Amino acid sequence: MSDNRFSPGLGEGEQESRGSDVRLTLPARPENVAVVRHVLGAFAEALQLPDPLIEDMRLAVTEACTNVVRHAYSDGEPGPAEILIRPEGDSLLVVVTDKGRGLGPSADSTGPGLGLPLIAALSHSFEIEQVPDNGARLRMSFRRGSELESV
Amino acid sequence: MTAGPQSSGEPQTTVSIVAGPLVGPVLRRVVGMLAARADLPLDRLDDAVLVADLIAARAPAHVSGSRVDVALEPGARSLSLKVGPLRPGGGQALIIDAAVPGVGNVIEQLADELSVSPEDSGEYLHVRLAYAATTA
What is the 3-state secondary structure (H, E, C) of chain A? Predict the structure, then answer.
């Protein structure tokens, strides 16, 4: 396992190991969303983030991961969901990447749901983009309000 | 919640953490959750978390880079961990480091299988914890 394992799914700025980031790769299955939530909780507690921010992050990241589970892959074996969590200055960056069908309407949904508007409302900033080969990447940034303590 | 073993076509579950104070809190939660999902009973779940804590505490001194990488594979009442890449000799050194005075080597005592294997990218420590119910 090398750092390059995550390269296909991450943007240029996210491939390099920096500070105290955590990278998770999980099969995109519903039960694994809870694993991501727990890891996020461990990260937030270690950084002593305020509870309201932790809850916002948990909800937003849950929505992002649920989108991957529901829409990224067609029937059959679930593909990978890659999650990067990294403190960046006064913000916490969370990147959720899949290698699925990419952006666009999916056959199994009746229209835009609440997921992305919710993420937009809970995060300081977010962007979603198509990954060059396959899949999609959602970057969320959560502002703490003051400089994160270095760990 | 019982997921059973991952099917062969599924991507592996991996966690990669910059060596430092986050390794323990993150690794113990991931291992704890996957051990519970693998239907390990409570005492073996405790064992799995203890092994995770020891790996988190000792592995940073033996990894070949700046990160602690662990691949996890839940099975039917078992959980396998693959730690690495480690520097040459790091696998055995990590096992030796897991000795606790007065207790002995905790990983050796708790693991059902323990081995070190060389691969192109470095050494890897393999740990498997399982639960086999005894029948009367």
Answer: CCHHHHHHHCCHHHCCCCCCCEEEEEECCHHHHHHHHHHHHHHHHHCCCCHHHHHHHHHHHHHHHHHHHHHHCCCCCCCEEEEEEEEECCEEEEEEEECCCCCCCCCCCCCCCCHHHHHHHHCCEEEEEECCCCCEEEEEEEECCCCCCCC
